[in-house]
Amino acid sequence: MIYFSRFTKIAFFLLICLLIAPTFGVFAATGRAPSINGKIAFASDRDGNYEIYIMNANGSGQTRLTNNNYKEGHPDWSPDGTKIVFTSNRDGNPEIYVMNGDGSGQQRLTNSPAADTDPDWAPTGEAVVFQSMRNGNWDIYRVDVSGANLVQLTADAADDVDPTWSSDGNWIAFRSNRTGSWQIYFMPATGGAAVRLSAGSGENMQAVWSPTGGQLAYHSNRDGNWEVYIGDIATLAETRVTNDAPKSQAPTWSKADFMGDGGAKTLGWVTMARNSWMQGHGIAQGRRPSASSTTRAIAALCHSESSRWA
Ligand SMILES: [Ca+2]
Ligand SMILES: [Ca+2]
Ligand SMILES: [Ca+2]
Description:
The protein is built from three helices and 23 strands. The protein has 310 residues and is mostly beta strands. A hairpin with a 5-residue loop joins strand 16 (204-209) and strand 17.
């Protein structure tokens, strides 16, 4: 009962926020796995325009970290839980910034008249990866947290977006429409040839790395409606995890073994059915608890906010 009331609660909170966020037009809608300081960073326009906030996992202690008339979004905690990288257009167009976890020490990392957005922290903490329009289409870049050593990692004429650094630091996954539909790719973290992981002609979205870094989970509509898939970067084999009439989306891995079935194999996702949310997890067993009063309360709590774990 303890594991269900506590960690599951946290995992469900993130899952629900992930999928609800786009519905409410939230500026940033990506998720991170657990947690060194237990806090969630999120963007909200509750005070008139988008700002970065943090809160405890139960929704208490909500604190605004930015306060200006511009648009802040896409917060991501540093691996050690002390800093937050985020996007702001305070200097005239979207740039990447970093600040301390209490909002102090805000510094700009990028300086380009084009949009720079969607930062994702390296697991080693020394750099971030992000997407930029500076060459006329979206490409993936990395930059040190000091602002030095900017490197362009993709140069395809199509759009390359949603970069995410693997848990082991070796790879960067992203989504590209270079074949005419959105597909999941990965490449060495230092750049180089990208390998396409997702097959078929459907759309593939929102890739998240497994805790060990060897697999990616994402959702795809290739089979007629949105289902969750796992792709293995060594074999390029894909496994469909869900098979439902409703949409199954927004997968996220847990690092802790909260279902008692071997942490790294535990994956959560959200299935939308009628007007309620159901959550699934535990790939190994395929278990799927129905929505509980706890998860409904959490859904009400997270409301229109997107979030990222510390
Ligand atoms: Ca603002
Ligand atoms: Ca810029
Ligand atoms: Ca490109």
